[in-house]
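Action item from last week, closing it out:
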Amino acid sequence: MIRVFCRLVPLILVCPLLTHCGGALGVGNMGGPTLEERKGRIAAEQTGDFHYGRRYFVNKTRFWGYLRKPRESWSRGRLVVFNESAMQSPDRLSENGPTGQKYGFDQNYEYRIHGSYTGREVYEPNSNQFLPEFRLTGYELLDRNPGWLFRPDDRYSATRITLTPR
């Protein structure tokens, strides 16, 4: 009996470690800088009356992506729906166009976004969320390939929401 118990104890101790590693320390599919490089870039960012925005496209949803204030971590970013009464979003194209020329073509592009929060929350039915509304008045493309959004192990899927602040 003692021999069986001695063999089971190491297995019991190792199993939680193995299952934990697969989820938390997995390899992401978005590439990008190291954690330290990202923190350095954010600390050196230009500041002003604008937000940094990261387009986040998931099929059939109508949110635009994440916005954050200059020099704030992406973990403080907010998923938003754009109010396009003053200006259309960068990817306002047909959903049936050719690759690179249709709605969502700019998945994960990083922008400097001008405008303001309206104070309203709007319902996005396909993700079943109430999200802040942001009135877009301008944008500038900063980077077409900035890499991961929240953590180096981020995994993007176009068919379900996988990127959320942690």
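Closing note: The two ends are 44 Å apart (CA to CA).
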